[in-house]
Specification:
The chain is mostly beta strands. It is about 10% helix and about 30% strand. The protein starts with 6 loop residues before the first helix and ends with a strand.
């Protein structure tokens, strides 16, 4: 079938109209990545897609996005080798005192030590009854009602000591009513003043016709006596109560004893 002659002129006319537009784009190299000499984007439509509805032109980079979230922890690695020891640090502060520990069991008994040397005895505080003492004894009766019965001389070694004395023997008052006799110690002729007299009194309310002998004991201490020879006397006399003097008798049948001992002074 033959083509209509009317269509050829229209086709030729369309090509002629599009040719001016195709030639500049080919010269610009829109598909070859070469920048066109004319920056007018309206002349070409055959390039890569662009932005803002303009094909063939790269768009302006956008703003950076927000940072993403942290990822999960990785798996634990193998333990590394031990490093070298560092230098010693400064000493720490002293800690608080701890609680007492539990008492341990008793240890074994140690061996017996060697015998030590004897110490020198020279202090009054070290005196004991076997160091400086004396006992005077006699066995006879004495019928004095007043006066000194017996004397026991003693050598005192120290000034700052005391004398301990006692009498042990038979004493008697005889055949009287309301009568009294007193026996006492003297030191160099005087009774003791510190702490006081060493004495004993015996009273009988109704004694007519009675003659009773009894063992008696009189004992005490005396301070303030100088060192050296001391005359310790044992006496009998009238009672300080004011009763009439009795018929006294000292010693009978057994030994009479006067004991004198130098001792350390008593605590104050």
């Amino acid at each position: 079938m033959a083509q209509s002659p009317i269509n050829y002129p229209l086709t030729i006319m369309s090509c002629l109209l599009l040719l001016p537009l195709v030639i500049p784009c080919a010269a610009l190299g829109g598909n070859n990545g070469v920048k066109p000499r004319n920056n007018n984007p309206a002349l070409c439509y055959g390039g890569q897609p662009g932005t803002n509805g303009i094909p063939g032109i790269n768009g302006i980079p956008g703003s950076p996005g927000a940072p993403g979230r942290d990822g999960r922890d990785g798996a634990k690695g193998e333990q590394g080798s031990q490093g070298k020891g560092g230098p010693l640090g400064p000493p720490g502060a002293e800690g608080q005192k701890g609680e007492p520990g539990i008492q341990g069991s008793a240890g074994q008994k140690g061996e017996r030590g060697e015998k030590g040397e004897s110490g020198a005895v020279h202090q009054p505080a070290q005196l004991s009854s076997h160091m400086n003492w004396k006992e005077c004894t006699y066995k006879h009766g004495n019928g004095k009602d007043t006066g000194e019965i017996y004397v026991c001389d003693f050598m005192k070694n120290y000034t700052d000591t005391a004398l301990h004395v006692y009498f042990a023997g038979n004493l008697r008052i005889y055949n009287c009513n309301g009568c009294c006799s007193r026996w006492y110690f003297t030191f160099n002729g005087a009774e003791c003043s510190s702490p006081g007299s060493v004495d004993g009194s015996f009273y009988m309310s109704k004694g007519i016709g009675h003659n009773l002998h009894r063992h008696r004991h009189i004992e005490g201490h005396c301070n303030g006596i100088h060192k050296g020879k001391v005359r310790v006397g044992f006496w009998v006399g009238k009672c300080t109560s004011g009763h009439k003097l009795a018929d006294a008798h000292t010693g009978w049948d057994t030994l009479s004893r006067i004991f004198v001992e130098e001792v350390a002074r008593a605590q104050q």
